[in-house]
Amino acid sequence: MSRKMVSIREAAEFLGVAAQTLRRWEREGKLIPDERTPGGRRRYDLARLRPEQFHAPESALRTIAYARVSSHDQKEDLERQKQVLELYCARQGWTFEVIADWGSGMNYHKKGLKRLLDDMVEGRIGRLVITHKDRLLR
Asked: Taking the domain 5-53, which CATH number applies?
């Protein structure tokens, strides 16, 4: 039985990720190429690749609604943002968590923002909802 060996680009397309992700997974030991060509190129067996083994199920990923205002004087605006986000997420039928911060869009040391970024880097967040694109950072 012959195996269908594909390039890193084709394997990445099949899995729905970038080729760079496959290289990182190889360094981390998550997905080792099935063979290498004499020139050192990676080859993957399509029959062994399963997208579900690398993607977390949709239900495991959280939805986060993020609200931010620049100062404590804008407390009412923060509450209004939170209400809008809660209403929107509830209407979509999503299970969600609201993170709210006070601080400048140029301040990268806000507690809520740090938690949000850590969760994003770890792959625990599937959806981020904000009222305006500058609410996250400028």
From this structure: 1.10.1660.10
Q: Which of 89, 91, 97 minimizes the C-alpha distance to 119?
A: 97
Q: Which fold has domain 58-135?
A: Rossmann fold (3.40.50)
As a whole number of angstroms, the distance between CA 109 and CA 8 comes to 38
In sequence order, what DSSP letters do the residues of 82-117 get, joined into one string? HHHHHHHHHHHT--EEEEEEES-TT----HHHHHHH
Quote the radius of gyration of the chain (alpha carbons, Å). Answer: 21
Q: How far is CA 27 from the centre of its chain?
A: 20
**What are the tens digits of pLDDT across the range 68-87?**
888 888 889 989 999 999 99
CA-closest candidate to residue 49, choices 82, 73, 25: 25
Active site amino acids: 70
Per-residue confidence (pLDDT) for residue 72, from 0 to 100: 82
- What residue spans in the chain does CATH classification 3.40.50.1390 cover? 58-135
